[in-house]
Design goal:
- It is a single chain.
- The protein is of the alpha+beta class.
- It has three domains: 104 residues, Orthogonal Bundle (Recoverin, domain 1), CATH 1.10.238.120; 56 residues; 113 residues, OmpA-like domain (60s Ribosomal Protein L30, Chain: A, 2-Layer Sandwich), CATH 3.30.1330.60.
- Helices cover 46% and strands 9% of the residues.
- It is globular and about 60 Å long.
- The two termini are 54 Å apart.
- 26% of the residues are buried.
- The N terminus is likely disordered.
Length: 325
């Protein structure tokens, strides 16, 4: 395994276990893993190292996938993935993460499409209703077969055909009902309608280096300002991206804007904390230039400025949110 593996290498490994695996999801997981895939040791998961499996549970299962199951349940799932991959000594991190996301139904977090609804099944007819339909159809079928009559009109033959056709349709209906009964497709009551699965909304793409992502979360604007490695220069599209924030504050004079700065977890922790603060202060200055009252801007230091819940590019950011007082 080389130091710079391509996404297709990861995809091939995942598809050893999930032949129809989603290539887009695999690419997103590769992006999430980031720098961890640049070295052989970091790109593998050791299931015999409890420190490593605990890290998978805490950082990936809980933080990234958002799972709230007890640790014993998560540990059991991780162990099951390790057993599933026991055919090799090289358990690739990308494959492990894909299998865990699949196990817990969380592939949608990486942009997997919602499952396509199956074709509608044949309607289920209660036994009593089937018997009533059969009884009503039988005389028409018998009459059509035993006493054909012509209509007194120019299309008399068509009238005859229609009559016989009606009888045949009745016979086919009875046969269909009988077949459904024999196949065991009758229930005492019709099944309750199944609600369609909610559409999966793909997360916005995280830029590599400086860039801006503008969203609406629960009706409120949110802007994420991303930075290049070890930089706090702001991307030029900042003014357009924060326009919804400025408009929200103008319409809600009691609300405030909150800024929180983050860095990726690599490098010196103390230097990273300073860099996160510099990034937040740079964004605050730009917001003020765009007409946001500096007195309504709050710099809020996050509990952990080094974000390990996303990939490295996603961690290098400042989050802009609006909050009511």
């Amino acid at each position: 395994m080389s130091e710079d593996l391509q996404p297709t290498d990861w995809a091939a490994d995942v598809k050893r276990y999930v032949p129809d695996a989603d290539d887009g999801v695999i690419a997103k997981i590769v992006s999430y893993c980031g720098i961890a895939l640049r070295t052989r040791d970091a790109s593998l998961v050791s299931f015999t190292d409890s420190v490593e499996t605990d890290r998978v549970r805490e950082n990936y299962c809980k933080k990234k996938l958002g799972l709230t199951e007890p640790d014993a349940v998560l540990d059991s799932a991780i162990a099951a993935v390790g057993e599933r991959m026991s055919d090799t000594n090289y358990r690739n991190r990308v494959t492990v993460y894909y299998l865990l996301a699949e196990h817990f139904g969380k592939l949608g977090l990486f942009g997997a499409a919602a499952p396509v609804a199956a074709a509608a099944a044949a309607p289920v007819v209660p036994i009593a209703a089937a018997a009533t339909l059969a009884a009503a159809a039988a005389p028409a079928a018998a009459h059509a077969m035993s006493s054909p009559q012509r209509r007194k009109s120019d299309d008399g033959f068509l009238g005859y055909a229609a009559l016989v056709g009606g009888g045949l349709a009745a016979i086919m209906l009875i046969a269909a009902i009988a077949g459904s009964y024999a196949a065991g497709r009758f229930d005492a009551e019709p099944p309750a309608p199944v609600a369609p699965a909610p559409a999966v909304v793909a997360a916005p793409a995280i830029p590599e280096g400086a860039g801006i992502v503008s969203e609406v979360i629960e009706g409120r604007p949110k802007v994420s300002v991303y930075f290049a490695v070890d930089k706090f220069a702001i991307a030029p599209e900042f003014a357009a991206a924060v326009a919804p924030v400025r408009e929200w504050l103008a319409a809600h004079p009691d609300d405030r804007v909150q800024l929180s700065g983050f860095t990726d977890p690599t490098g010196d922790a103390a230097a990273n904390a300073v860099l996160a603060k510099n990034r937040a202060e740079a964004v605050a200055a730009e917001l003020a230039k765009e007409g946001v009252d500096a007195a309504r801007i709050d710099l809020v230091k996050p509990e952990d400025t080094s974000d390990e819940t996303t990939d490295l590019a996603g961690a290098r950011r400042v989050e802009i949110t609006v909050n009511g007082v």
